Amino acid sequence: LAAATPLSAREPMPAPSLPRQYEVLIETTAHQVNASKEYPAATRRMRVFYDYPARRARIDYEAVPQVPPKSFVRRYDLSFEFMVQDIGGVRECHKSKLREAMPPPRLPHVLVYVGTANVRGVACDHWRDDLGEESVEIYIPKGDAGGQRLPLLVRTEAVTRREPLTTVPLMSYDVLEHKLGAPPESVFKLSGDAGAAAAAVFDASGDGGLVIGQCERVVEDIGFPYIHFLHSYVYA
Hints:
Layout: E1 12-14, E2 21-30, E3 43-51, E4 56-61, E5 70-75, E6 80-87, E7 90-97, E8 110-119, E9 122-130, E10 134-141, E11 153-161, E12 166-180, E13 216-217, E14 228-230, E15 234-235
Parallel strand pairs: 7-13
Antiparallel strand pairs: 1-8, 2-3, 2-12, 3-4, 4-5, 5-6, 6-7, 8-9, 9-10, 10-11, 11-12, 14-15
């Protein structure tokens, strides 16, 4: 990555816009977690199917030591969500009502444009969200000024000194794969074996299939926590 630039070195500029329909593979890294230990895992991967115009999303977490694979499906269009996980080969399903609207994908209205940087061999525009004691470094592949582009890397950093800029990395979101456009309807399906929605993680075919009607209802329909897969800018 490019060398750090002082927070005050650039003027704020209008932020680029984010795409609203895609499939991505994201790797998150918690930099303050001991990477040499299996648990808690410092690095996790999730595959995200995101369709804001249709108001639905699905997040598949890969398994890590002591944490089973999980799939979350959020159907804001139907005011319904469910979670499927596999514990020791036994599938469990929980469901709940969704009481709020789907949060829109949105970068801050104004970001600081730092310059250009190379991220994993890709030329990127480097933007910064200056939050005072914390900064968020956003690397977006270069392209047409008016086009919607997905960040290649988002990294939060604690600011320990303003001048010269000194930071400590906190959390990274690396987009390893992406495919723009509306995900297929089938990945959000709610009927049949496990709604077919957890197929990428769970084999829901045959006698082992899990019917949505068998899902346990979450007490008082309190639902599941938001999953932030691109920091606070995109979550579901």
